[in-house]
């Protein structure tokens, strides 16, 4: 009994046992930095999914180019489509050839910018007029459609006869080609504003100008940005067409394309096409990023 009492006394007076437990592994079995690693891998997979398809298609296009140039075409006809490495070395990497192209591309870029600004201002104004009522829409919209469907090449001689063959004529061609998407999207955005918001502005006794600036324009901005993005690609096409047909003044990239075609300079012709295409892609990408930024802010 004495031994048992003593043991019980010692157990009751002893302090609590100290136990150290190792941290339990996470449910996924990863280390403490697993979330960061998984998010990095997810971003890499997303980047690969975005880059891989264009890279594969580009490689396939270059391979097809080599096939046609080196296999299908005979050596006597290979000047029609020189292989990519000859275009690169003879034109794009030769300052004597590429510098005139870059200067001409800068001229085309200025024409595109001026044409886009005029198309944006005029297109927004026409879209606002059309949104003021069904009568204005029925009076203006058919002519906007006519302006869109008329082949520009058919009226180029008339534009040259009226406005000369310089910068003004090139700008007019850009406006004619690029203005319709701006008109259509501006009109759509302004007429799609929520009716309840209109009633709220009516209760607040807002003026027409206040309604337009504070309600309709902000609501129509996503549709307008879509029109700007579409017009940005068309305006580059219009500038190149204007360069081809209105050769007075500084030569644009379209002027050089016509000269290279006439002289059968296939290397320079393909190089100029590549530069013009890259410029158009860059312009379209800029407006796509602006469109995405507007969508995120909303």
TrEMBL record:
<feature type="compositionally biased region" description="Polar residues">
    <location>
        <begin position="1"/>
        <end position="11"/>
    </location>
</feature>
<dbReference type="Pfam" id="PF00528">
    <property type="entry name" value="BPD_transp_1"/>
</dbReference>
<feature type="region of interest" description="Disordered">
    <location>
        <begin position="1"/>
        <end position="39"/>
    </location>
</feature>
<keyword id="KW-0472">Membrane</keyword>
<feature type="transmembrane region" description="Helical">
    <location>
        <begin position="231"/>
        <end position="249"/>
    </location>
</feature>
<feature type="compositionally biased region" description="Low complexity">
    <location>
        <begin position="12"/>
        <end position="39"/>
    </location>
</feature>
<keyword id="KW-0813">Transport</keyword>
<dbReference type="InterPro" id="IPR000515">
    <property type="entry name" value="MetI-like"/>
</dbReference>
<comment type="similarity">
    <text>Belongs to the binding-protein-dependent transport system permease family.</text>
</comment>
<keyword id="KW-1003">Cell membrane</keyword>
<feature type="transmembrane region" description="Helical">
    <location>
        <begin position="141"/>
        <end position="163"/>
    </location>
</feature>
<keyword id="KW-1133">Transmembrane helix</keyword>
<dbReference type="InterPro" id="IPR035906">
    <property type="entry name" value="MetI-like_sf"/>
</dbReference>
<feature type="domain" description="ABC transmembrane type-1">
    <location>
        <begin position="105"/>
        <end position="291"/>
    </location>
</feature>
<feature type="transmembrane region" description="Helical">
    <location>
        <begin position="269"/>
        <end position="294"/>
    </location>
</feature>
<protein>
    <submittedName>
        <fullName>Nitrate ABC transporter permease</fullName>
    </submittedName>
</protein>
<keyword id="KW-0812">Transmembrane</keyword>
<feature type="transmembrane region" description="Helical">
    <location>
        <begin position="51"/>
        <end position="73"/>
    </location>
</feature>
<feature type="transmembrane region" description="Helical">
    <location>
        <begin position="104"/>
        <end position="129"/>
    </location>
</feature>
<feature type="transmembrane region" description="Helical">
    <location>
        <begin position="169"/>
        <end position="190"/>
    </location>
</feature>
């Amino acid at each position: 009994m004495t031994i048992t009492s003593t043991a019980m006394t010692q157990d009751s007076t002893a302090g609590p046992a100290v136990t150290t437990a190792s941290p339990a592994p996470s449910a996924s079995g990863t280390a403490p930095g697993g979330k960061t690693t998984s998010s990095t891998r997810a971003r890499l997979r997303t980047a690969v999914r975005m880059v891989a398809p264009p890279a594969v298609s580009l490689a396939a296009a270059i391979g097809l180019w080599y096939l046609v140039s080196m296999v299908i075409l005979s050596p006597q006809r290979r000047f029609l489509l020189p292989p990519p490495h000859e275009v690169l070395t003879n034109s794009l990497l030769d300052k004597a050839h590429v510098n005139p192209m870059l200067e001409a591309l800068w001229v085309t870029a200025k024409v595109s910018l001026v044409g886009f600004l005029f198309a944006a201002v005029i297109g927004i104004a026409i879209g606002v007029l059309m949104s003021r009522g069904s009568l204005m829409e029925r009076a203006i919209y058919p002519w906007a459609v006519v302006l869109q469907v008329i082949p520009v090449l058919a009226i180029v001689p008339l534009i040259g006869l009226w406005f000369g063959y310089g910068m003004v004529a090139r700008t007019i061609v850009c406006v004619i080609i690029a203005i319709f998407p701006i008109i259509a999207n501006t009109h759509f955005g302004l007429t799609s504003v929520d009716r309840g918001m209109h009633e709220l502005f009516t209760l607040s006794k807002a003026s027409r100008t206040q309604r337009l600036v504070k309600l309709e324009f902000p609501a129509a901005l996503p549709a307008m940005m879509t029109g700007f993005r579409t017009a940005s690609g068309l305006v580059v096409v219009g500038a190149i067409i204007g360069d081809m047909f209105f050769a007075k003044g500084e030569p644009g990239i379209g002027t050089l394309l016509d000269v290279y075609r006439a002289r059968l300079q296939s290397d320079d012709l393909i190089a100029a096409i590549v530069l013009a295409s890259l410029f158009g892609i860059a312009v379209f990408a800029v407006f796509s990023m602006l469109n995405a930024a507007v969508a995120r802010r909303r």
